[in-house]
């Protein structure tokens, strides 16, 4: 049906490896936050009037939300913001029948090789099952947006190949 949305998936990210906080420029910090959290905030705000009861909002974050990453200080900070945003939004929307949730895993940032900083092999072995593929994470998006996921709100699914995280 036109004029409404059933699913909003916020899945955009920007990251820049820096070895020191001193190397993060004001411009980089602002751009990383603008892409990773402000964009999600504004997209959600614009979509809300078009989401009917039973609609889903899926926000993508990263394992760095919980574990941090010393070379990705600004990026990790935005991913923590996404977790707090999702949990707070779910409480705000609970009585409106809209269900925000998160999906994070290897498809968001572990698939991206950064040979100048970390060898691909390190990313592949950081999770017991190795680096995943986007198709292995996509099922979480489908689940959260389906009727089967209708009782999930403000939750984080961890399709990350068995990497222990603090949730």
From TrEMBL:
UniProt-recorded Gene Ontology molecular function terms: oxidoreductase activity, acting on CH-OH group of donors
Keywords: Oxidoreductase
Transmembrane residue ranges: none
Region span, Disordered: 94-131
Pfam families tied to this protein: adh_short_C2
Alphabetized SUPFAM superfamilies for the sequence: NAD(P)-binding Rossmann-fold domains (SSF51735)
Oxidoreductase among keywords: yes
InterPro entries found in the cross-reference section: NAD(P)-bd_dom_sf, SDR_fam
Keyword Transmembrane attached: no
Alphabetized PANTHER family for the sequence: NADPH-DEPENDENT ALDEHYDE REDUCTASE 1, CHLOROPLASTIC (PTHR48107:SF16), NADPH-DEPENDENT ALDEHYDE REDUCTASE-LIKE PROTEIN, CHLOROPLASTIC-RELATED (PTHR48107)
Sequence similarity: Belongs to the short-chain dehydrogenases/reductases (SDR) family.
UniProt protein name: NAD(P)-dependent oxidoreductase
Lineage start: Eukaryota, Viridiplantae, Chlorophyta, core chlorophytes, Chlorophyceae
